[in-house]
Amino acid sequence: MPKPRHFYDLLKYSSLGLEMGAAVIIGLLLGIFLDRKFDTSPWLTLLFLGLGFAAGVRALIRAVRDGAFEEETDDHF
Amino acid sequence: MASETFVFLDHTPLFTALARVEGIDPAPIIHGALVSIIIIALAVLVNRSLKDRRIMPHEKTLSLTNLLELAISGILTFMEGMMGKEAKRFLPLIGTTAFFILFSNLLGNIPGFEAPTANYNTTLACAIVIVVTTHIVGIKTHGAKYIKHFLGPAWWLAWLILPIEIIGHLARVLSLSVRLFGNMFGDHLVLATFMSLVALLVPVIFMGLGLFVAFIQTFVFTLLSIIYITGALEEAH
Fold it and tell me: Under an 8 Å CB criterion, which residues of A touch B?
């Protein structure tokens, strides 16, 4: 059986796809909710859609950075 | 789909009492309660057998106590592989969610019962508990530094980074709960569809697949919870 740390890496990157999609959906829903509340359609929806996309990309960048960091320090795999 | 199949617990007095309340779907509540009762019963049984165990070395026979001990020590070793010394602190939370989700998933494989995790409310509750715990852990171990982490690298970027971070953490709740719910619901749906097409022998394949999915999804949910909590513990860099 492989080491737990191996599963850790596998799941960390494989869950990234769903997390990016979820971030966009959360941003969109938050924008629609705030638009209804303040009656400013469609501006807040567009703004939060962009923010949601940015959140997804940020998660991706962080994962890549962590992965690069681990590659420097680890000598296995 | 649920109206087509026969469900045992739909014919209990508790179900009819709950069904009278408006805006409530009683099936996942009752099945969730059933899973909790099963887990509590197992815990009580095992605890009793541990009390009058006279010798420390393991019994040779396969008993319920041995089986659960194996499972729990397996979870603990797995957690120690990732969290190190902190693993024991989080064993109650992670172990309980693991057992709850595993038994919930497996309950859906018994004909006449529904999986509580095939309802979005149950999985959302589990995900919220986990993600809220990660933030409590983060604030407890790092204090103000943890909150500063949400504001980004520079103070003049804070107004942009803060909403992005909040959306990112809400997305974790969504992805964690949707993954479990989608798999269990989809599994249920596939089984129901093939059951209505060919009732003989063919559904057995999908029941085997369902058993596999039940274990895999428990594993994935537990592991992701451990990853999130570990992330909150070592936020420093």
Answer: 3-5, 7-8, 11-12, 15, 18-19, 21-23, 25-27, 30, 48, 51-52, 54-56, 58-59, 69
